[in-house]
């Protein structure tokens, strides 16, 4: 029944790919098949994290159904991106699906960009490490990220900035905190025997993100935090002080726990769990809060879908044994839904999907 539903839904999504480049629209009318993009997204562009975060699901659907159409759509996106010039080796967040040109040169490992990088690594893992093209794209991308976006603050905190209008913004989003876990997950198999380096980088990002929680009144992390002048790992603008039950910091704690078993990650996760229970629990479930620096916070009255799918799941896994969803057999999509590693030759190698 779920396979039938998945095929029906994918069929409704396929018209979104009917663009001059094959880069899909951000939105598609499920009845008419007409697609369009967000008005605010750089002159009609599609968004990197949106069109780059289809790979795992579409490849798996081709595997389940034996129909290569889904696989071909996402491989076409990859081939197109490989051919394009990348400023500083980085992928901008906006790509115009009509012209095939980048929009404004804004690059982020947080919102708008985040899961694109995650899916390069996870495509390789999900293919039982056969999809070496994805791994190469991932390695190239994180080398560029480390060179151009990762910096150390005056206080010694490692952070990932955002490239905007030709300069580095010394600000990190809560969403970017997932990258600590990504670096740890990608450490094994990294170039030039740098596994130790990437595990250390993951630990430094985890530490920075924990500081963003620890420096608030509620011990919950803000949406974005700065590294400017005397201000470090703290939100400055009112519209960045909210916490909407996001999972990314806890996700990184979990990966770091799996790879190091350092008890501090469980301690940090428990701090977050207690803070969520104390400040976010309401009669009907859990709510986001508008200001993590206020001792009497107001609720936003929304329980986000990712709270159950990710935040609580990663907390549960953090306190579970490693044999629950072992990382050798399962890869989590960006919403923390586990997909199996397929131990098949060439499952996701270009042009040669092995079908059941």
Automatic annotation (TrEMBL):
GO terms for molecular function: calcium ion binding; mannosyl-oligosaccharide 1,2-alpha-mannosidase activity. It is found in: Golgi apparatus membrane. InterPro entries: 6hp_glycosidase-like_sf, Glyco_hydro_47, Glycosyl_Hydrolase_47, Seven-hairpin_glycosidases. It comes from the Eukaryota. It is a single-pass type II membrane protein. Its EC number is 3.2.1.-. GO terms for cellular component: endoplasmic reticulum; extracellular exosome; Golgi membrane. Pathway: Protein modification; protein glycosylation. It catalyses: N(4)-(alpha-D-Man-(1->2)-alpha-D-Man-(1->2)-alpha-D-Man-(1->3)-[alpha-D-Man-(1->2)-alpha-D-Man-(1->3)-[alpha-D-Man-(1->2)-alpha-D-Man-(1->6)]-alpha-D-Man-(1->6)]-beta-D-Man-(1->4)-beta-D-GlcNAc-(1->4)-beta-D-GlcNAc)-L-asparaginyl-[protein] (N-glucan mannose isomer 9A1,2,3B1,2,3) + 4 H2O = N(4)-(alpha-D-Man-(1->3)-[alpha-D-Man-(1->3)-[alpha-D-Man-(1->6)]-alpha-D-Man-(1->6)]-beta-D-Man-(1->4)-beta-D-GlcNAc-(1->4)-beta-D-GlcNAc)-L-asparaginyl-[protein] (N-glucan mannose isomer 5A1,2) + 4 beta-D-mannose; N(4)-(alpha-D-Man-(1->2)-alpha-D-Man-(1->2)-alpha-D-Man-(1->3)-[alpha-D-Man-(1->3)-[alpha-D-Man-(1->2)-alpha-D-Man-(1->6)]-alpha-D-Man-(1->6)]-beta-D-Man-(1->4)-beta-D-GlcNAc-(1->4)-beta-D-GlcNAc)-L-asparaginyl-[protein] (N-glucan mannose isomer 8A1,2,3B1,3) + 3 H2O = N(4)-(alpha-D-Man-(1->3)-[alpha-D-Man-(1->3)-[alpha-D-Man-(1->6)]-alpha-D-Man-(1->6)]-beta-D-Man-(1->4)-beta-D-GlcNAc-(1->4)-beta-D-GlcNAc)-L-asparaginyl-[protein] (N-glucan mannose isomer 5A1,2) + 3 beta-D-mannose. Its main location: Golgi. SUPFAM superfamilies: Seven-hairpin glycosidases. Its cofactor is Ca(2+). One of its GO terms (biological process) is N-glycan processing. It is an enzyme of class 3 (hydrolase). Disulfide bonds join 177-209. Belongs to the glycosyl hydrolase 47 family. This is alpha-1,2-Mannosidase. It comes from Chloroceryle aenea (American pygmy kingfisher).
């Amino acid at each position: 029944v779920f396979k039938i539903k998945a095929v029906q839904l994918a069929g409704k999504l396929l018209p979104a790919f009917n663009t001059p480049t094959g880069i899909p629209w951000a939105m598609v009318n499920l009845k008419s098949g007409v697609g369009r993009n967000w008005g605010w997204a750089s002159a009609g562009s599609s968004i990197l994290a949106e069109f780059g975060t289809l790979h795992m699901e579409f490849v798996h659907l081709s595997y389940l159904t034996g129909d290569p159409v889904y696989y071909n759509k996402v491989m076409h996106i990859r081939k197109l991106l490989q051919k394009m010039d990348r400023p500083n080796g980085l992928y901008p967040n906006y790509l115009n699906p009509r012209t095939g040109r980048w929009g404004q040169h804004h690059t982020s490992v947080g919102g708008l960009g985040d899961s694109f990088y995650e899916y390069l690594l996870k495509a390789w893992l999900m293919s039982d490490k056969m999809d070496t093209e994805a791994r190469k794209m991932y390695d190239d991308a994180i080398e560029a990220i480390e060179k151009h976006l990762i910096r150390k603050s005056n206080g010694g905190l490692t952070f990932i900035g955002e490239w905007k209008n030709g300069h580095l913004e010394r600000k990190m989003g809560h969403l970017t905190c997932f990258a600590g876990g990504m670096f740890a997950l990608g450490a094994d198999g990294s170039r030039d025997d740098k596994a130790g380096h990437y595990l250390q980088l993951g630990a430094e990002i985890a530490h920075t993100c924990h500081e963003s929680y620890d420096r608030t009144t509620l011990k919950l992390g803000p949406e974005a935090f700065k590294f400017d002048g005397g201000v470090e790992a703290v939100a400055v603008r009112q519209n960045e002080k909210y916490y909407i039950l996001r999972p990314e910091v806890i996700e990184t704690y979990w990966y770091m726990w799996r790879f190091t078993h350092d008890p501090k990650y469980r301690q940090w996760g428990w701090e977050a769990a207690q803070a969520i229970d104390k400040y976010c629990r309401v009669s009907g479930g859990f709510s986001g809060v508008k200001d993590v620096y206020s001792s009497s916070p107001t609720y936003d009255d929304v329980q986000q879908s990712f709270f159950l799918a990710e935040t609580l799941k990663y907390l549960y896994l953090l306190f579970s044994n490693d044999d629950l969803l072992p990382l050798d057999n399962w890869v989590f999509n960006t919403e923390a839904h586990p997909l199996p590693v397929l131990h098949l030759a060439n499952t996701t190698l270009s042009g040669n999907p092995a079908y059941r």
